[in-house]
Amino acid sequence: MRRAPLSLRLRLVLQLLGIAAVLAIVLYFTVRTVADQAAEATQDGVLGAATLAIAESLQGGEDGVGVDLPYEAFSILGSISADRVFYRIEAGGQTLTGYEDLPLPEAAGAAVAPVFYSRAYRDTEVRIAAVNRMVLVARKPVPVLVLVAQTRQGQEAIAQRVAQRAAALGLGSFALAAVLSLLTAGNVLRPINRLADAVGRRGPHDLRSVDQPTPAELRPLIFALNGFIARLRGALSRTETFIAEAAHHIRTPLATVRARAEIAMRQSNSEETRETLRAVIRAVEESSRSAGQLLDHATVVYRSDRMADEALDLAKLVEAQAEAFRPTADLKDLTIRVTGTDQPVTVRGDRPLIEAALRNLLDNAIKYSPDETTVDLSLATGTEARIEVSDRGRGLSGQAQARLAKRFARGKNAGDIIGSGLGLTIVEEVAAAHGGRFELTERDGGGACARLFLPLG
Amino acid sequence: MRAIVLALGLILHACLAAGFPVEEEMLFPAPETERRELSILSTTDTGVLRPLIAAFQVREPDVAVRYTVASSQAVYAAIHDEGLSFDLVISSAMDLQMKLANDGFSAPHDSTATDRLPAWAHWQDRLYAFAQENVVLIASRSGLGGLPLPQTRRDLIELLRGHPDRFRGRIGTYDPELSGAGYLFATQDARQSDSFWRLAEVMGGLAPRLYTSSNEMITDLKQGRLVLAYNVLGSYAEPRLAGDDDAVVIELEDHTLTLLRTGLIPVTARAPDLGGQFLDFLLAPEGQRLLRDEAGLPRIDEAALSRGPHLRPMRLEPGLLVFLDGLKRRGFLDEWAAALSQD
Amino acid sequence: MRYLLVEDNPDLAQSVADRLRLDGHAVDPAASLAEARDCLAAAPYDLILLDISLPDGDGRNFLAAERRSGRDTPIIVMTARAEVSDRVDVLDLGADDYVTKPFDFAELEARCRAVLRRRGSALQTVQHFAGLTFNPLNASLSVDGELRELRNRELRLLEILLAAPERIFSKGQICDRLFSYAESVTDNAIEVYVARLRKKLEGSGARIETVRGIGYRLTSG
Question: Which residue of A209, A286, A447, C55 could cross-link A443, Cys pair, CB 3.0 to 4.6 Å?
Answer without folding.
Answer: A447
